[in-house]
């Protein structure tokens, strides 16, 4: 049996009941009295709520993985619109998919039984597979048409400045991440921008364009340095996770809040699966 001191810390696991017409906030709060990842979801929501309530907290959001193809574009858009994200760090792929939706193209629901998928047939049908979501080749052609017609005013700028220009010049859209970041002056950092279909097309059609990654790196460090308090939410890991954490590493204050959502494991030694505790060392 546990000793008396430990007994005081232990609470019984509650068997939750889903009530009729129960709102999502009440339901998630009830998960805080359960176990496993249900409890962790409730804890993560509570941490993010504290980040939002803290007016001195600068909220860094790292986004990697195929959230836009999976249908999460509007969720990220609304977080930015509501002021829940102050600085966004993401991948070129996420921005490419965001532009695709903003230009009126769509990702398609594919075969859910992956073992039944014939990728050779999909290739012949000019369909790109992202797990169980498909994207027609014509979407990339549409993005290229848009990119080729851009009148970029300055060939020497930071990646974040270019992404602000891009957001300003996209058509009106209620879901676009790039568009809402431009409207709300939320900086987007994309440290691996060249690793994307969007950058590939830019390179072909605007060969004089010289995007300065070092300027972005210094700007990011300055933003992290100036933050009185910092909160971090990392979805997926990868380059955005490292870019955020390495920027905070050189600052006098570490992050006061941290959330990580990932399917990766720490045993492989990759950054995406590394625990938040590992960032301390």
UniProtKB/TrEMBL annotation:
The keyword Cell cycle is annotated on this UniProt entry: no
Pfam families, sorted: DS
Gene Ontology cellular-component terms listed: cytoplasm
GO terms assigned for molecular function: deoxyhypusine synthase activity
Entry keywords, A to Z: Transferase
Family as reported in the entry's similarity comment: Belongs to the deoxyhypusine synthase family.
Name of protein: Deoxyhypusine synthase
Organism per entry: marine sediment metagenome
Lineage, uppermost ranks: unclassified sequences, metagenomes, ecological metagenomes
């Amino acid at each position: 049996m546990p000793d008396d001191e430990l007994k005081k810390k232990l609470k019984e696991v509650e068997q939750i009941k889903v009530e009729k017409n129960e709102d999502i906030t009440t339901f998630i709060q009830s998960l805080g009295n359960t176990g496993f990842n249900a409890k962790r979801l409730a804890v993560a929501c509570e941490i993010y709520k504290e980040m939002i309530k803290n007016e001195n907290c600068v909220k860094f959001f790292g986004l990697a993985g195929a959230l836009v193809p999976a249908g999460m574009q509007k969720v990220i858009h609304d977080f930015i619109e509501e002021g829940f994200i102050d600085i966004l760090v993401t991948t070129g792929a996420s921005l490419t998919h965001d532009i695709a939706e903003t230009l009126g193209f769509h990702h398609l629901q594919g075969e859910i039984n992956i073992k039944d998928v014939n990728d050779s047939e999909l290739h012949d049908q000019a369909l790109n597979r992202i797990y169980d979501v498909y994207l027609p080749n014509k979407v990339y052609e549409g993005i290229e048409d848009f990119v080729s017609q851009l009148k970029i005013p300055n060939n020497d700028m930071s990646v974040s400045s270019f992404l602000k220009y891009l957001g300003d010049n996209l058509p009106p859209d209620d879901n676009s991440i790039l568009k809402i970041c431009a409207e709300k002056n939320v900086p987007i950092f994309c440290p691996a921008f060249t690793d994307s279909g969007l950058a590939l097309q830019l390179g072909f059609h605007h060969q004089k364009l010289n995007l300065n990654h070092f300027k972005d790196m210094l700007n990011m460090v300055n933003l992290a340095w100036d933050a009185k308090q910092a909160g971090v939410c990392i979805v997926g890991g990868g380059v955005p996770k490292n870019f955020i954490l390495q920027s905070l590493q050189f600052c006098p204050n570490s992050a006061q809040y941290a959330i990580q959502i990932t399917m990766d494991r720490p045993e492989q030694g990759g950054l995406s699966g590394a625990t938040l505790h590992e960032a301390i060392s």
